[in-house]
Write a structure and sequence with these properties.
This protein has 437 residues and is mainly α. The protein contains 19 helices and no strands. The protein is globular.
């Protein structure tokens, strides 16, 4: 019997299972409700999101309750907890060694532990008897986005309503409502959303929708060719390579088209001014759209082992080094912007390494390995068509966030949901192995 147990019985996510108590339905509904109110925050030295903490507490309950633990128990479940504990412990040690304040220590320890236990709670929801659990969660994320914009809009959201306000919430809602569509129709809807985002100056989400649509097409093609799990592993490499190639080509195309339209004034005066600033040095915003990465790299170099502290700004020496490097490359506008207004870390992976050092590495290695494993062993094919539609979009969005977005509250929940999918799939695989043995 191979490690992936290809011939073991498969269990569809959200499938009703004999003997599961009604309390597990209530558990799934409670977690979905907490996601709905996840926009609520409490100010102070550390910004606290009570719903996130409550979801993490549910994750602890799942670990302690034998019946609920059966929904998530697997070797990957243990490895996730170990990686999160290592990250939190390393953050605490480095924070104490550098004399960071109490708020920095608390935020640093809470981040990996909240994500880890929230992921376990999400895995419990996904493997619960609840019908279409991923759809529930993505609709809850959508409503949270609308409520957050209505009740607690940020300064950015007031300034750019679509990009920082309701654009992602609308996308979540469409993804949830159209998840039952045939995959090809779902992919077409994603492409239509991508066009809308592009015209409304939300380039990153336009690219995410395009990449997710292509991924759905690839999965449809794979299932039409051969549904056997052992063949899934053979085709996973070209499938991922094709997706990566399409994403890169799409990124270049979308950025180029956006630059032309924006600088010509077709997208409004505000976008014209922004595009002209981004293209003033190179004629393209492809190299100037995410300039924070170099600051992150130099910040990692400042303290590669211990990190620089959670929530603290990048070290001044790192900012100065990035400034000189951009000047050397001829990106004068970018260099001036960085030195006058030092950016925060704009990458979850690079930012966590810059803030917490080597202690964060096992977490991201595990995340990448589980993502690869889900596709390379055919585990992802255990998902029903409707749940797969939602999962592919969320995975694409989370992949982008991990590379190019900060560790915001909504991003932490997204990361927990995707980790939850991986843990749920591993749990199903191990149950299939036991049933087949």
């Amino acid at each position: 019997m191979s490690e992936v147990c290809e011939r073991g019985p498969q269990v569809e996510l959200g499938e009703k299972s004999r003997g599961l108590a009604s309390s597990r339905w209530i558990f799934a509904d409670l977690v979905a409700f907490l996601v709905l109110i996840s926009y609520l925050s409490l100010g102070g030295a550390v910004q606290v999101f009570p719903a996130e903490l409550a979801i993490a507490v549910f994750g602890v309950v799942v670990c302690l309750d034998p019946k609920l633990r059966s929904l998530v128990s697997s070797r990957m479940f243990v490895r996730l907890l170990a990686a999160c504990l290592l990250w939190a412990s390393g953050t605490l040690v480095s924070g104490l060694a550098q004399g960071n304040g109490l708020s920095v220590l608390v935020e640093g320890v809470l981040r990996p532990m909240v994500v880890g236990f929230a992921a376990i709670a999400m895995a419990g929801v996904i493997n619960s008897p609840a019908r279409r659990p991923l759809r529930r969660l993505v609709v809850a994320l959508s409503l949270a986005g609308f409520l957050g914009y209505s009740l607690q809009p940020s300064t950015f959201a007031r300034d750019e309503v679509w990009k920082f306000g309701v654009g992602l919430a609308v996308t979540f809602l469409v993804v949830g409502l159209m998840s039952n569509f045939r995959p090809r129709s779902f992919a077409v809807a994603l492409l239509a959303l991508g066009v809308a985002h592009f015209l409304l100056a939300y380039r990153s989400l336009a690219l995410i929708c395009a990449a997710a649509a292509f991924a759905v097409f690839l999965m449809v093609r794979h299932r039409e060719i051969d549904r056997r799990a052992d063949q899934a592993a053979k085709r996973s490499s070209w499938r991922l390579a094709a997706l990566a190639t399409f994403t890169v080509v799409s990124a270049v195309s979308i950025v180029s088209q956006y630059d032309q339209l924006a600088t010509s004034g077709y997208l409004g005066d505000k976008q014209q001014q922004k595009a002209m600033a981004l293209t003033s040095d190179t004629g393209s915003s492809l190299l100037t759209g995410r300039v924070e990465w170099l600051v992150s790299v130099y910040s990692i170099g400042e303290s590669p082992v211990l990190g620089n502290g959670t929530g603290l700004p990048p070290p001044r020496d790192a900012v100065v080094s990035a400034y000189h490097q951009y000047q050397e490359w001829g990106l004068t506008t970018v260099a001036t912007a960085i030195i006058s207004d030092p950016p925060a870390y704009h990458s979850q992976i690079l930012g966590s390494l810059a803030e917490n050092g080597v202690a964060a590495i096992p977490f991201w290695v595990l995340f990448g390995w589980l993502a690869w494993r889900a596709f390379s062993t055919g585990l992802i094919d255990r998902l029903s068509a409707s749940e797969l539609n939602v999962a592919i979009f969320l995975m694409t969005l989370t992949a982008w966030n991990s590379l190019f977005s900060p560790f915001g509250s909504g991003h932490r929940l997204l990361l927990a949901i995707i980790f939850g999918v991986f843990i749920a799939l591993e749990n199903q695989r191990e149950r299939g192995c036991r049933a087949a043995s």
